């Protein structure tokens, strides 16, 4: 196994595969309060990334700005798959998870790198997943109103698509600030409804 460790703006970025024994040592050296960030890793194009929360947030903002500057410079040029600027912007800097990337893949035909290990469409499992799906639909207008196309991808997706409007309304009522950055947790009723929908889908 080979890997590279890079320090950038107070954060540790890992490229390649790290043996567990060495990974433990690296994380231990990160210091108290350090956090792993999938989002930072994706923005940086590495396998693992961590740092103190303030450093992680600052580097994420910096990388987003760099990517957005690149998108603006490319605006008007042809894009892979004929994606709109909004879609390309979400691919570059949007908050992503397995379920939101699955929606993007299904509805555009373009598979995000985040899904490189997946072979099927993943469904949201909690309010944080749902929030990322809603952010995708909010930020890429041409995908709005097409969630019904996820029905048939799996029993879970078929059930969720049928109850989508109710879930969205519950999320909006419980967490009206869901568009703001954050994990999207704490929407207990939304989570309860999702779990009930998923439970029924599996029986």
Provide a descriptive summary of the structure in words.
The chain has 203 residues and is α+β, with helices and mostly antiparallel strands. It folds into 2 domains: 3-61, no CATH class; 80-201, no CATH class. 51% of the residues lie in helices and 9% in strands. It has a 4-stranded antiparallel β-sheet, covered by helices on one side. The protein is globular. The mean pLDDT is 88.
| Helix fraction bin | 40-55%
Which blocks of ≥5 consecutive residues have pLDDT under 50? none
Would you tell me the overall average pLDDT? 88
Per DSSP, what share of the residues sits in E-state strands of 2 or more residues?
5-15%
Can you count the beta strands? 4
Characterize the overall form.
globular
Give the biggest sheet.
4 strands, antiparallel
Helix/strand structural class:
alpha+beta
The structural domain count equals 2
Q: Whole-number radius of gyration?
A: 18 Å
């Amino acid at each position: 196994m080979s890997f590279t460790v890079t320090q950038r703006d107070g954060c540790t970025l890992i490229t390649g595969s790290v043996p567990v024994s060495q990974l433990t040592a690296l994380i231990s050296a990160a210091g108290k309060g350090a956090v792993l960030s999938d989002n930072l890793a994706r923005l940086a194009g590495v396998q693992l990334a961590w740092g103190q929360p303030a450093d992680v947030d600052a580097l994420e903002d910096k990388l987003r700005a760099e990517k957005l500057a690149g998108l603006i410079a490319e605006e008007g040029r042809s894009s892979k798959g004929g994606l709109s600027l909004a879609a390309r912007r979400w691919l570059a800097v949007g908050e992503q998870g397995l379920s939101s990337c699955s929606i993007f893949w299904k509805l555009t035909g373009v598979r995000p790198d985040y899904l490189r290990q997946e072979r099927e469409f993943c469904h949201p499992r909690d309010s944080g997943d749902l929030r990322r799906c809603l952010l995708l639909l909010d930020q890429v207008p041409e995908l709005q109103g097409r969630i019904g196309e996820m029905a048939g991808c799996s029993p879970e997706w078929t059930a969720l698509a049928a109850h989508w409007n109710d879930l969205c309304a519950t999320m909006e009522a419980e967490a009206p600030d869901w568009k703001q950055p954050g994990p999207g947790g704490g929407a207990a009723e939304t989570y309860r409804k999702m779990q009930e929908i998923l439970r029924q889908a599996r029986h």
